[in-house]
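Self-study notes.
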Amino acid sequence: MNVNYIENVDSLEGLKQLPSKSINCSISSPPYLNMRNYGIEGEFGCAETPEEFVNQLCDYYDEVYRVLKDDGVVFVNLGDTYLGSGKGVWKGKENTKKESFKFTEKPKEKLGGWRKQKQLALIPFRFAIEMQNRGWLLRNNIVWHKGNAIPQSCTDRFTVDFETIFMFTKNKKYFFNQQIEPFANASNPDEIYTGEATKDYESSNAQNPSDTKRRILESMKKRGGRSMRAVWKINTKPNKSVHTATFPEELVERMLKSGCPEEGVVLDFFMGSGTTGIVAKRLGMNYIGFDLNPEYCEIARKRIEES
């Protein structure tokens, strides 16, 4: 199987070209519902309803399920959407670089029932539930906390400074390289615990907290740190590409180090500006990328070549 390439193709068509059980890890940040228009006909993300968006996205991941190895891991970064604002980058703009193509009007969400104007659509969680319905195992709900989040103009709710990353697998047993982070200030791995529980946990078949604490302390000494938590504070980083939604390399590195073996193959079927490929190359892994936008494919290839 060819690796280390980016193909300008519709992601679903690209996925169908890959052999079954050929990919170790998938990392993607799909376009969010009606949030951006990159000026390419047929691009993903302009569904009329949250349900349509979720079903279309899960159709992509049906193919990912096929091409993923049995011990493979999938990370999906997905943001949420507020319904019915009628604002955004879709409306009234033209693509000045391609005179023959004009942006369409932003699709109007079909409101009704729970779909009310200003309602948070809960897209990530609707997606996660549908993925479970289609056979995936949801192993983690990771919070990507953006410490330098862009201020928002709204005055009737709190500013959103995070996005969701889901970690899915096909099976209960899968490749995972546990990541270790420094102990919290209050932790003392050299502590010697001699306490004994005063309740009869054994007869009630309950976990003995004293035994648990001893096991934790022993594990802390061996690892030299604590198991990485699921809230990742990672600032966004600017780059010179024209792509408006780019991964920070630290975010991709954390996912690849945990979910992809050395010399493994990582797939990003919404490759964008190529950050997944850059990090994979640096870590000694292989990559495959798809993107419908030819301009972004060229940007990604150049960024990876120069990295």
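Second protein, same conventions, sequence then structure:
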Amino acid sequence: MATRFLFDPPRRAKNKPGINWKSLLVRCPSTSKLTDTGKTVEEKLWPTAKVKTQKLTCAHCGSVHTWTKKDVVLGRPLS
């Protein structure tokens, strides 16, 4: 078994095979570019998911945007 030292970076959680995780992306109203919200959801659970109004600091324009479920575009999670 490999030895892990205290200074090793944390390992990512392994995704279970068969689960299709999607990242939640929101389009910036100023630049029309997609911005990652930092949240993920299992694709088959998305239609029944309840999402409250959220705030996001946009990486493209620097403004704070509010978004709801209708504003979300499902994309691949960052790996």
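Instructor comment on the second fold: The mean pLDDT is 83.
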